[in-house]
Design brief:
single chain, alpha+beta, seven-stranded mixed β-sheet, globular, Oligopeptide-binding protein OppA
Length: 566
């Protein structure tokens, strides 16, 4: 599909409408409507928790949902996704015009744009920010989101110094021209990810090479979003205040206090002590709150999964990988450890996304219950192929977001012991440490197996398949298709199929190609999907119109509807 053609975009919009119906069906009653009168301005203070210190306050490098929440409040880009995950213009006055070959996008900016300190925001700031995100000097772990840019590979590797004047053009202060390397159905969606968000060059350059990063000085006017930073304490949290220079509808809240907690258990206890106005509910406590008036549930496009590194023995053998997958009864894990709060799955692409394949199965045609007998046989066959009688010492590394995650991982390790006779050690680490370990695994065996999760960045299968399984992708941390296993040549063919699907115009054919690739990925156990999540939350009855979308975010203009009543 050539991006930008009206017929193609409307087709995608229709898919998103279906998804919007899916999302709307799962909302609870925990968030009050807008019928109550607002409290005075000095009481428009919302206390909202994230797991912190956040891993990054730089939109060019952000990888996780907790960091993304304050970033989305402080920074914006050319486009955004609304509550139904439809692409909407943001800094751009309207959606771009697109050349007939689908390779050139021309954006007209809104007039009078300013950063939060009053500095003018022009097209030069837009292209500076995008170029910075893909530059070799930043070495961003999420630069891949902008890999469609013409000559991305050259600037990302340092072969050329900049894309400005090449694929990033500024004919005037209000016009941004972006050239891409191939027509792609999902390009506008990629621009909704923070890698393309605009930062104030003056602030970034001022603190380059200094004793503290520029993100410690965001309060000087680094962003142009609905809020600006008043204070940032790495131990306690971030205080955001209304940005009166914001170009869109202004927030009703005067202050958004983003409070740091170690885990969801701490958030939940703080909410009960009336120290927060919103909290995520740990899965162990979901049954205690579902009947409460402040409870709400939102289906989210999040999959939790296990990764096995193809470059680490014994996971270079497909049968051994399949054995570890089939030894897990996901239904039992979700029912017991996760308190039935989520849905067991064999999928990479979650339910509710375009391209979700109901016919997909686990490896060897299995269900989410697994198959212990088949798992044991596959392990024996794989070890025979490798000429070994014992497995090397194995360790599962993960970040325990809450106690239920610990329980789930313990149960999975127990299933491996019971069904395979394999002892797997467990290593729990902080979230930031796990991200560092994952980022270091490309083309090496430094991390053999770990637990991770993925939340949709935009509503297209490319975000789930090509982003993870393509050759050289930043997120191909388990080295699919870039390994010495017997399956590697077939995996390379899958990567070629994914790249073809990315640019196919016919949507029906495109989804078939993604479905075929996903089944092959699952058969080779590139992931061991575990469950698809819901967000269970509690919101104070004084908070009105606060509703997370399926990305667990609040679109920038939606803050104008959120307020506190007396």
């Amino acid at each position: 599909m050539k991006a930008g053609k009206k017929l193609s975009f409307q087709f995608l919009a229709s898919l998103l409408c279906l998804m919007a119906i899916f999302l709307a069906s799962c909302g609870g009653s925990g968030n009050s409507s807008s019928s109550s009168p607002a409290a005075s301005d000095d009481k428009q203070v919302l206390r909202y928790p994230v797991v912190g210190d956040i891993n990054s306050f730089d939109p060019g490098t952000v990888q996780d949902t907790d960091s993304n929440f304050p970033i989305q409040a402080v920074f914006t880009g050319l486009v955004t996704l609304d509550k139904d995950l439809k692409v909407k213009p943001q800094l751009a006055a309207e959606l771009p015009s697109v050349s007939s070959d689908g390779l050139t996008y021309t954006f007209k900016l809104r007039s009078g744009l300013k950063f939060s300190n009053g500095d003018p925001l022009t097209s030069k700031d837009v292209v500076y920010s995008i170029n910075r995100a893909v530059s070799k000097s930043l070495n961003s772990p999420v630069s891949y989101y902008l890999s469609l840019l013409k000559d991305f590979d050259k600037v990302n590797s340092g072969k050329i110094p900049t894309l400005i004047g090449d694929s990033l053009l500024t004919p005037d202060d209000n016009t941004v021209v972006i050239k891409i390397s191939k027509p792609a159905a999902y390009f506008l969606q990629t621009l909704s990810y923070p890698t393309s968000y605009v930062v104030n060059q003056k602030i970034v350059e001022k603190y380059k090479g200094g004793s503290s990063p520029w993100t410690d000085h965001i309060q000087e006017g680094a962003g142009a979003g609905p809020f600006k930073v008043q204070t940032y304490n790495h131990s306690t949290g971030i205080t955001l205040v209304r940005n009166d220079s914001y170009y869109g509808p202004k927030p009703k809240l005067k202050t958004l206090s983003v409070v740091f907690y170690k885990n969801e258990d701490g958030m939940y206890k703080a909410y009960q002590a009336k120290q927060l106005d919103f909290t995520f509910v740990p899965t162990a406590n979901v049954g205690d709150v579902t009947s409460k008036p402040d409870y709400s549930a939102t289906n989210v496009l999040t999959i939790r999964y296990l990764s096995l590194n193809y470059l680490a023995k014994p996971f270079d053998n497909i049968k051994i990988r399949q054995a570890f997958a089939l030894a897990i009864n996901k239904d039992l894990v979700v029912k017991t450890a996760m308190n039935n709060a989520f849905t067991a799955t064999n999928h990479v692409i979650p339910s509710g996304m375009p391209g979700y394949d109901q016919a997909l199965t686990g490896p060897e045609g299995t269900t989410t219950q697994g198959d212990p007998a088949k798992a044991k046989q596959l392990l024996a066959d794989g070890m025979k192929e490798e000429g070994i009688t014992t497995l090397p010492s194995l360790t599962l590394t993960y970040y325990p977001r809450e106690q239920s995650f610990k329980d789930a991982m313990s149960q999975i390790v127990s299933m491996w012991q019971t069904n395979l006779g394999v002892k797997v050690n467990v290593n729990t680490v902080a979230r930031a440490r796990l991200l560092d370990l994952e980022n270091a695994t490309k083309n090496n065996a430094s991390l053999p197996m770990w637990q991770a999760g993925w939340n949709a960045d935009y509503p297209d299968p490319q975000d789930w398949l090509t982003t993870f399984f393509d050759q050289g992708s930043d997120y191909n941390q388990f080295n699919y298709g870039q390994n010495q296993s017997k399956a590697a040549p077939e995996q390379v063919q899958v990567q070629q199929e994914l790249r073809k699907a990315d640019v196919t115009q016919d949507q029906t054919e495109r989804m078939k190609m993604y479905n075929d690739a996903e089944q092959k990925v699952i058969n080779d156990v590139a992931w061991i999907p575990l469950w698809q999540e819901k967000v269970h939350s509690l919101t104070s009855q004084k908070v009105h119109n606060l509703k997370l979308n399926s990305q667990q975010l609040i679109p920038p203009d939606d803050w104008s509807n959120i307020y506190m009543s007396a």
